[in-house]
Write a structure and sequence with these properties.
The chain has 287 residues and is an alpha/beta fold. It has two domains: 86 residues, 3-Layer(aba) Sandwich (Rossmann fold), CATH 3.40.50; 124 residues, NAD(P)-binding Rossmann-like Domain (Rossmann fold, 3-Layer(aba) Sandwich). It is 42% helix and 15% strand. Strand 9 and strand 10 form a beta hairpin. The structure holds nicotinamide-adenine-dinucleotide (NAD).
Length: 287
C-alpha cells in the first residue's frame, strides 16, 4: 500500500506561509504583490484556470487583475498590453494563459514579458538561468512536484529518476530540477523504445504525457515513488491522471492522486513566484 501524497494539504500549508510573508511585505515595505493574468479567447478550461489563479491570489492577500481579450486579438495589441504591464509598478508578475490562438506567436509573446515579471519562468532568460542552476523563478508545475517530494521526505540524490514527457512546461524542466538534486535522470518521450524497461528501473517516476491510465502496474518497480502530473477529462467530466492508480498504487511506496496531487501545487508555486518577484522589487526600490 502506497502512502498518498496529499497535494491539497501540502498546498494549503505553503499557501498559509505565503500569506504570512505577503502580509509582512505589505506591512514593512508597503508593497502588495500584484499578478496580471492575460487570457486570449474563450477556452473553457483556460477560463477555469485563470479564475482559480485570481481567487488564489486574493486568498493570499495579493492584488490580481485579469485581462480577458477576444480570440481575434492581434499580436501587436497583446504585445502592447504586456509592455504596459512590464512598466506597471503595481504588477510584479505577468502570466499569459497558454495556449494562445494560432495566429499569435507564443514565443514572441513570452519573450516580450520582462524576465523579472515572468512568474511562469518560460522566458528564455529564465530557462537559461534554470539550466545553469541559478534562478529566481522555477516553472510552477515541476517546482510543485519538487516541493511534494521534499515535503514527503523523499530522497532524490543518487536515485534513478525517470520523467515521461519532454515538454518545455513540464518534462524538460522537471528533469533539470531532479538532476539539480543529484538524481540520475532519464527522459522518455513519444519516440522512446522499450519504455516499460526504463520505467521499471525508476525509483522516482514522474509522468507528464496527457493520456489517461498511460502508466500501469506492470511498468512500475516495487517501492517506486510515482508522481502523476497528467490532467485528463473523462467522458463523464471527471478528472483523471496519466497513471492507472488501481494497478500502480499497490506497488508504489508513494503516489500522488488526481485530482488532489500535483494540480493544487501549480497555483501555489505561482503565488510563490509572485511573492518572490514582489520581494525582489521591494529590495531594488527600498534600498
Ligand atoms: P505535452 O503534450 O506538451 O507533452 C506530452 C509529452 O508526452 C511529450 O513530450 C511527448 O513526447 C510525451 N509522449 C507522448 N506520447 C508518448 C508515449 N507514447 N510514450 C512516451 N512519451 C509520450 O503535454 P504537457 O504540457 O507536458 O502536459 C502533460 C500532462 O500534464 C497533460 O495531461 C497536462 O494536462 C498535464 N499538466 C498538468 C499540470 C498541473 O498543474 N498538474 C500542468 C501542466 C500540464
Amino acid at each position: 500500500m502506497a502512502k498518498i501524497i496529499d497535494g491539497k494539504a501540502i498546498s494549503a500549508k505553503i499557501r498559509q506561509e505565503i500569506k504570512i510573508e505577503t502580509e509582512k511585505l505589505i506591512r514593512e515595505k508597503r508593497i502588495t504583490p500584484g499578478l496580471a493574468v492575460i487570457i486570449v479567447g474563450e477556452d473553457p478550461a483556460s477560463k477555469v484556470y485563470v479564475r482559480n489563479k485570481r481567487l488564489a491570489c486574493e486568498g493570499a492577500g495579493m492584488y490580481s487583475v485579469v485581462h480577458e481579450l477576444p480570440e481575434t486579438t492581434e499580436e501587436e495589441t497583446l504585445l502592447r498590453l504586456i509592455d504596459k504591464l512590464n512598466s506597471d509598478k503595481k504588477i510584479h508578475g505577468i502570466l499569459v494563459q497558454l495556449p494562445l490562438p494560432p495566429h499569435i506567436d507564443e514565443g514572441r509573446v513570452i519573450e516580450s514579458i520582462s524576465p523579472e515579471k515572468d512568474v511562469d519562468a518560460f522566458h528564455p532568460v529564465n530557462v537559461g538561468k534554470i539550466t545553469l542552476g541559478s534562478y529566481d523563478f522555477l516553472p510552477c508545475t515541476p517546482a510543485g512536484v519538487m516541493t511534494l517530494l521534499e515535503e514527503s521526505g523523499i530522497e532524490i540524490g543518487g536515485r534513478d529518476c525517470v520523467v515521461i514527457g519532454r515538454s518545455n512546461i513540464v518534462g524538460k524542466p522537471q528533469a533539470l530540477l531532479l538532476l539539480e538534486k543529484n538524481g540520475t535522470v532519464t527522459i522518455c518521450h513519444s519516440k522512446t523504445k522499450k519504455l516499460a524497461e526504463i520505467t521499471r528501473r525508476a525509483d522516482i517516476l514522474v509522468v507528464a504525457v496527457g493520456r489517461p491510465d498511460f502508466v500501469n502496474g506492470e511498468m512500475v518497480k516495487e517501492g517506486a515513488v510515482v508522481i502523476d502530473v497528467g490532467i485528463n477529462r473523462k467522458a463523464d467530466g471527471k478528472l483523471t491522471g496519466d497513471v492507472d492508480f488501481a494497478s500502480v498504487e499497490p506497488k508504489a511506496s508513494y503516489i500522488t492522486p488526481v485530482p488532489g496531487g500535483v494540480g493544487p501545487m501549480t497555483i501555489t508555486m505561482l503565488l510563490k513566484n509572485t511573492l518572490t518577484a514582489a520581494t525582489k522589487y521591494a529590495e531594488m526600490t527600498c534600498r
